[in-house]
Amino acid sequence: MYYYDRLKSRYKNLSIATFDWDNIYFLKKYYPFIKKAEFIPFMGFQATGLVPYRERSRDILFVGSYNDLELSRKALDSLPGVFRTVGENAFRILENNTKKVDRKGGVI
């Protein structure tokens, strides 16, 4: 499980929200100390004034993780053949195509 290390720490008043009912059942069964495990339904609003992708001024992909990037990179060494190659390629693509932006959306 992705967050196993954090879950085994048994934080007080831990609450978890997830989009997956199976996660909730699993957490309630095997981690009864978790204060809350709640389902969050997918939701949203109908967008207005959409700009076609080819006409947009910024490409944005936000991906987050609590994992240390260097530890993840080192973990690739333990993967066999093609899995390590795929992981290394993913890191290379991210490093070569990622831009840092400030709070106003300007490229740093």
Blueprint (SSEs and pairs):
Blueprint: H1 4-7, E1 15-18, H2 21-30, E2 36-39, H3 69-75, H4 81-96
Parallel strand pairs: 1-2
Description:
The structure is a single chain. By secondary structure, the chain is mainly alpha-helical. The protein folds into two domains: 36 residues, no CATH class; 44 residues, no CATH class. The protein contains four helices and two strands. A two-stranded parallel sheet has the order 1-2. The longest helix has 16 residues. It is flat, with a radius of gyration of 19 Å. 0% of the residues are buried. The model has no long low-confidence stretch (mean pLDDT 76).
How many distinct domains?
A: 2
User: What strand line-up does the widest sheet have?
Assistant: 1-2
**End-to-end distance:** 35 Å
CA-based gyration radius: 19 Å
The computed structural class is mainly alpha
Overall pLDDT: 76
Shape: flat
Sheet having the most strands: 2 strands, parallel
Tally the helices. 4
Poorly predicted regions are: none
Total count of strands: 2
Following the backbone from N to C, one meets helices and strands in this order, namely HEHEHH
Helix content bin? 25-40%
Strand coverage percent = 5-15%
Task: Give a short synopsis of this structure.
This protein has 108 residues and is mainly α. The chain has helices at residues 4-7, 21-30, 69-75, 81-96, and strands at 15-18, 36-39.
Features of this protein?
2 strands, 108 residues, 2 domains, flat, single chain, two-stranded parallel ribbon, 4 helices, mainly alpha, 34% helix
